[in-house]
């Protein structure tokens, strides 16, 4: 191996909780309709974790599948990272819980928090660390139980989210023309009030004292607060910019892209990005109709689905992107390494 290895995705996995909630069912909880949800967001249903299922449970299922797919065991790993907004605990990290569920120990584990952009951020972070030679094999999981931080009486948010986990095994190897390319990441914290959830302790933090009061539940967490149409406008705009930027830094043209694997927030946002790329919709991987927005899990879940159903072919160029609270957004580019 040369001194700067190339980082490849060697395996993928995914897990969705058994329980499916349809729009019809939701319309019995809040004043909404299947027609409204489908036409405004493209969502038909979402999976919800059972009362006794935590983010680490979903993550462990997806992790096992990705390890099997890569043909390795947890003992072969050098690090484990979980991208999540809904950790089991404030600390220790969900990653450390998953490590112990996989019955291994010793290698470093940490969580990364960039909300719906968590997987895209983590992939960029790990690519840099692995290229620098810190780790050879890493398990990266995006996992969320968004249902736990929703206000089920707020029709503006509860219809949009779901639970799930997706995972990839990353491996440093030879440069064979495939693997991860350069990523671009951005954040603008001045937008933080448009999309957030707060822990009770944060009420005391000086930098949040001017924020509007939030209702804190018995567990000490406020539900997701969102100004949807303002988020929508900025998301379309920033995603349009970031896909151009990631193509530019990698010296790639629009017509070279084989697959767009976007964060699955709203079909109208996905379509706007595909249009910006002049990419036919069939070249975009869509799961939002069945999964809704699973935050940091949505990109690896979509990647796993397209890998398993045979859409992704070795050497094809993939563009991954996400937009999130913060606002934090970014994109990764890679050539698919698997046969
Ligand atoms: N069912 C029925 N009506 C609803 C509704 C629901 N679930 N949620 C909101 N409405 C109503 C609103 O109250 C509003 O009514 P009014 O005109 O009488 O005031 C009307 O529908 C239009 O609301 P608006 O927010 O302008 O709709 P929209 O076309 O912007 O779609 C979203 C709403 C939330 C689907 C859309 O803005 C969106 O997807 N935003 C981005 C969200 C996102 O991606 N978040 C995560 C980023 S990672």
Structure description:
- With about 350 residues, the protein is α+β, with helices and mostly antiparallel strands.
- The chain is built from ten helices and 14 strands.
- The longest helix has 22 residues, at about 230-250.
- The chain is about 30% helix and about 25% strand.
- It folds into two domains: about 5-175, Thiolase/Chalcone synthase (Peroxisomal Thiolase, Chain A, domain 1); about 180-335, Thiolase/Chalcone synthase (Peroxisomal Thiolase, Chain A, domain 1, 3-Layer(aba) Sandwich), CATH 3.40.47.10.
- Strand 13 (about 315-325) and strand 14 form a beta hairpin.
- It has helices at about 25, 35-40, 55-70, 95-100, 120-130, 155-160, 230-250, 265-275, 290, 300-310; strands spanning about 5-15, 20, 45-50, 80-85, 110, 135-145, 165-175, 180, 185, 195, 225, 260, 315-325, 330-335.
- The chain binds coenzyme A (COA).
Q: Name the average pLDDT.
A: 94
Q: What is the second-level CATH architecture of the largest domain?
A: 3-Layer(aba) Sandwich
Q: What is the helix/strand order?
A: EEHHEHEHEHEHEEEEEHEHHHEE
Number of helical stretches of at least 4 residues: 10
Tally of distinct domains: 2
**What is the top-level CATH class of the largest domain?**
Alpha Beta
The ligands bound in this entry are: coenzyme A
CATH homologous group name of the largest domain: Thiolase/Chalcone synthase
Largest sheet: 5 strands, mixed
Shape assignment: globular
Q: What are the segments in which pLDDT stays under 50 over at least 5 consecutive residues?
A: none
Which range does the strand content fall in? 15-25%
CATH fold name of the largest domain: Peroxisomal Thiolase, Chain A, domain 1
Cross-sheet strand order for the largest sheet: 1-7-6-4-5
Q: How many strand segments?
A: 14
N- and C-termini, Cα separation: 21 Å
Proportion of helical residues: 25-40%
SS-based class: alpha+beta
The radius of gyration computed from the alpha-carbon positions, rounded to a whole number of angstroms, is: 19 Å
């Amino acid at each position: 191996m040369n001194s700067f290895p190339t980082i490849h995705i060697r395996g993928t996995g995914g897990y969705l909780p058994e329980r499916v909630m349809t729009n019809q069912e939701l319309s019995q909880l809040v004043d909404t309709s299947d027609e409204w949800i489908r036409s405004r967001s493209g969502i038909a249903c979402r999976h919800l974790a059972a009362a006794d299922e935590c983010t680490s449970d979903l993550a462990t299922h997806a992790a096992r599948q990705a390890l099997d797919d890569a043909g390795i065991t947890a003992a072969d790993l050098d690090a484990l990272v979980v991208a999540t907004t809904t950790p089991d605990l404030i600390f220790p990290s969900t990653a450390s819980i998953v490590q112990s569920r996989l019955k291994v120990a010793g290698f470093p584990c940490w969580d990364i928090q960039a909300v719906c952009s968590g997987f895209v951020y983590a992939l960029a972070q790990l690519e840099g660390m692995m290229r620098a030679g810190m780790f050879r094999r890493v398990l990266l999981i995006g996992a969320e139980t968004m249902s736990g931080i929703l206000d089920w009486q707020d029709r503006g948010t509860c219809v949009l989210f779901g639970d799930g986990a997706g995972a990839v095994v990353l491996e440093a190897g030879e440069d064979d023309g495939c693997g991860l390319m350069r990523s671009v990441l951005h954040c603008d914290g001045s937008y933080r009030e448009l999309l957030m959830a707060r822990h009770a302790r944060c009420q005391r933090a000086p930098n949040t004292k001017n924020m509007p009061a939030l209702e804190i539940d018995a567990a000490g967490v406020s539900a997701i607060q969102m100004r949807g149409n303002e988020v929508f406008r900025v998301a379309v705009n920033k995603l349009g910019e970031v896909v151009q930027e990631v193509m530019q830094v990698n010296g790639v043209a629009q017509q070279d892209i084989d697959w767009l694997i976007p964060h699955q927030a709203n079909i109208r946002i996905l379509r706007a990005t595909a249009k910006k790329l002049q990419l036919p919709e069939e070249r975009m991987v869509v799961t939002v109709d069945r999964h809704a927005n699973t935050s940091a899990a949505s990109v690896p879940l979509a990647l796993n689905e397209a890998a398993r159903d045979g859409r992704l072919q070795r050497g094809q160029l993939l563009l991954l992107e996400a937009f999130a609270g913060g606002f934090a957004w970014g994109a990764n580019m890679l050539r698919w390494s698997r046969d």
